[in-house]
């Protein structure tokens, strides 16, 4: 095993990535009632009283500490529908409910406003915005949707988007051979193979995420690279059989290896085909992105 592979596997075992394991969807008590049935003031009693138990991972613009935890909690409540569209958010009530300062509340609402979840206007106050205004490509919103009542829609939409992004990225990457990236992709496949043999899902997931991110980067298309965070988020929040790379097995590993070989050979068609074979679609989206035919 290469030095890189050994180092990465050691680091993965010694830290907690916060990725959802089996049953991860059940960790968040979202209400299942339709948003249209929810009326009246915010039901703060439905949330966890201890904010320290809320945050799974501190990423993106959420930051850490009370500010990050409050963004996480409010974001989850909005995305789940517990705080429906046009619902007023009174900073004083939020501060009292979560026992945080006015500054923490104000900064948290600013973060949510930047994500399109809330709007603040003079003489109107802060209100929850409709889904059509949300930045659905924001990694935090992807995560919140994936672990809420919209989980099935989010998983399907992410799969469809990946089918648009990654086969093209694989084809383009084959025309931009870089020995350093080529070696690192090979290392990721090696790590994944060893992790699969050891039953180490955490290391496998990390190597898989890096593999797909690297592939998009080497495509040398800045707009595609800008979307690489979507792929990473899709892999990190996966809680079910969305794509073949999220079910570690010999076939999945083989497709990763064939992608690397195609890139080394500069064969864009083979790289694209291998990627499509890897991204085995969820049954619900087969009519949208059908599985590739064998030639």
Descriptive report:
The protein has a 3-stranded antiparallel beta sheet with strand order 1-3-2. It is elongated, with a radius of gyration of 21 Å. It is 54% helix and 3% strand. Helix 1 crosses helix 8 and helix 3 packs across helix 4. With 295 residues, it is mainly alpha-helical. Strand 2 and strand 3 form a beta hairpin.
**Main beta sheet:** 3 strands, antiparallel
Structural class: mainly alpha
Q: Which parts are unreliable, with pLDDT below 50 for 5 consecutive residues or more?
A: 10-41, 46-63, 239-244, 281-288, 290-295
Multimeric state: single chain
* Gap from first CA to last CA: 35 Å
Give the strand content.
Answer: under 5%
Average pLDDT, to the nearest integer? 76
How many beta-strand elements? 3
Features:
54% helix, 3-stranded antiparallel sheet, 3 strands, 295 residues, mainly alpha
Present the secondary structure layout.
Layout: H1 3-14, H2 65-80, E1 88-89, H3 91-98, H4 102-114, E2 118-121, E3 125-128, H5 139-146, H6 151-173, H7 179-198, H8 201-218, H9 222-226, H10 228-237, H11 250-265, H12 268-278
Short overview:
The protein has twelve helices and three strands; from the N terminus they run ααβααββαααααααα. It has 295 residues and is mainly alpha-helical.
